[in-house]
Design a protein that fits this description.
Layout lengths: L7 H6 L8 E3 L4 E3 L1 H6 L8 H5 L9 E3 L3 H4 L1 H10 L5 H11 L5 H10 L3 H22 L6
Antiparallel strand pairs: 1-2, 1-3
Length: about 140
């Protein structure tokens, strides 16, 4: 299976409400926490085996910024506000942002108007800033 390369901005851009994604900070891998911990367990684990598991912090595994910390709506609104050449797209995107469950619909609309790649480039600085802010807040060293 080939590993897909993406940026931290790509990963943060896809974090939805009530979703938690973990980063192994020493290797910069996105990990599924349950699968990762299975490496440390015997085939038929006992309760005692679970108690002996190393901590997430000792393994350099941290939950990435969550939906509330990221504030997707802020960058999406800013991007939409700056679309001057396509008033129809602007109107539709602002309408989508009025909803509670807006992320997937927003991305679908961007793709409909061929604005998705432009948005990714535009928003990457914002998502990278959020990541750096999160690292500072939790005193996480990368690499």
């Amino acid at each position: 299976m080939e590993k897909v390369k993406c940026t931290i901005a790509d990963v943060l851009m896809e974090i939805h409400y009530r979703e938690c994604i973990f980063l192994k900070t020493d290797t910069l891998e996105i990990v599924n926490l349950m699968d990762y911990f299975k490496k440390f367990l015997p085939e038929n684990p006992t309760e005692e085996d679970y108690e002996k598991l190393p901590s997430k912090e000792s393994l350099n595994i941290y939950p990435l910024p969550d939906y509330d910390f990221i504030n997707h709506k802020s960058i999406m609104s800013e991007f939409t506000h700056n679309i001057y050449d396509n008033k129809e797209a602007r109107k539709e995107l602002f309408y989508i942002l009025r909803n509670h469950d807006y992320m997937d619909k927003f991305y679908e609309c961007l793709k409909k108007y061929n604005l998705y790649d432009e948005y990714r480039v535009y928003a990457s600085d914002y998502y990278n800033f959020v990541f750096r802010e999160w690292c500072e807040k939790y005193n996480i060293k990368i690499g």
